[in-house]
Amino acid sequence: MIQLSDKEHNMQMDDMKSFDEQMPCVGIFWYDPEDHTFFGVRKKELTPQMVEEAAVKGKPFINYPQLNYEVWQEETKAAIEREESQTSSSSSEREQSRAKLKFKGDYTQVPRGRVAWTIDKFIVLVGKWAEPIQDELTELLEQEFSLPYFEFVYDEHWDLGHGWSGDMPK
Fold first, then answer.
1. Are 28 and 70 in contact (CB under 8 A)?
2. Residue 83 contacts residue 95 (beta carbons within 8 Å)
3. How far is 117 from 61, CA to CA, in rounded Å?
4. Which helix (H) or strand (E) holds 99?
5. Which pLDDT does position 168 carry in this prediction?
6. Which pLDDT score, from 0 to 100, does residue 165 have?
7. 3-state SS of the chain: helix, strand, coil percent to 5?
8. Rounded to an integer, what distance in angstroms lies between the CA atom of residue 107 and that of residue 150?
């Protein structure tokens, strides 16, 4: 039996650490311009198997399976239910708490985006709101979604006040 040298052992450990790292993810997010952070993040690791299956099926796009609109509704409802279950708080305290909810109002009025995979790269779909803060967003996206590389893609849908025609108030 051979024994590894300290150097060889350390190299093996470094290689094995890469197995613990999170795989890059597809997902959705909102950006809080006051805190300069993401919130409401939903993500799913993109595995090599998913990429291979998409290629075999001829799918050029791998996406997170939920819409921002759906998550916004779920989170708003959950936050209101949590707030209402806190019966020990006074009415004015509950109102102040509600004002602090990040999931309030029209979901299209809060900067949001989507991380997806195309045939050979990650793309981040955003509106014009992202242009002045691309460097900041790049850092947040790399950290939150473990993205090794990606491209920003503008689409009007992601501009403030825009959404899918089916989810916009009449």
1. no
2. no
3. 6
4. helix 91-99
5. 45
6. 53
7. 45, 20, 30
8. 25
Phi/psi region, residue 58 (left: phi>0; alpha: psi -120 to 50; beta: rest), is left
- Map out the domains of the chain as residue ranges: 24-68+106-167
If we measure between CA atoms, which residue out of 20, 19, 69, 60 comes closest to residue 42? 69
- pTM value > 0.85: no
157 residue type, one letter: H
**What would the two tokens of residue 50 be?**
């998913």
* One-letter amino acid of 79: A
Closest CA to 114 of 129, 125, 130, 123: 125
Extract the residue ranges of the chain whose pLDDT is less than 50: 96, 98-99, 166-170
Closest CA to 39 of 48, 47, 49, 29: 29
53, 98, 110, 134, 156 from 130: Cα distances, Å = 32, 27, 12, 6, 12
Residue 141 tokens read as: 């996206």
